[in-house]
Amino acid sequence: DGVGLARKLKLGTQEAHKAAETVHFVHEFIKGKVPREVYAQMVVNFFYVYEALEEALDRCADHPMVDPLHFPDELCRAEALARDAEFFCGAAWRDTTAPSAVTKEYVERVRRVSEDAPELLVPHAYTRYLGDLSGGQVLKRAAVR
Known about the structure:
The longest helix has 24 residues. The chain is mainly alpha-helical. It has nine helices and no strands. The model has no long low-confidence stretch (mean pLDDT 85). 74% of the residues lie in helices and 0% in strands. The chain has a domain of 101 residues: Heme oxygenase-like (Heme Oxygenase, Chain A, Up-down Bundle), CATH 1.20.910. One of its GO terms (molecular function) is metal ion binding. One of its GO terms (biological process) is heme oxidation.
């Protein structure tokens, strides 16, 4: 039909993207009003999200829909997030913190999808990485402040 996957995903996620941009947390974060401990918990939660997603993508790397888009070296975020969690929470962060209940549900869902319908990891990973990496550039400037 002439419309590539990236374009379809962009069009299909426009509404969700707009909603994410208007979340109260994002506005407060950009203004520098998010407490350090809240930010630290977000980093911990993102670690568990990316750990689950990257493990799922690795497990499903031979799937015909996943293989062409599997770039673990270029896209891996879990390691960097683990370092960030250590910075914000200390060396024993894995023992002193835990993912939120919603994060645990999210992680379990990613694991189930990887077992039941691995092809669904592709649009999810696209959205997750692109949203966090491009949107993260805006948030990075706020975090540095």
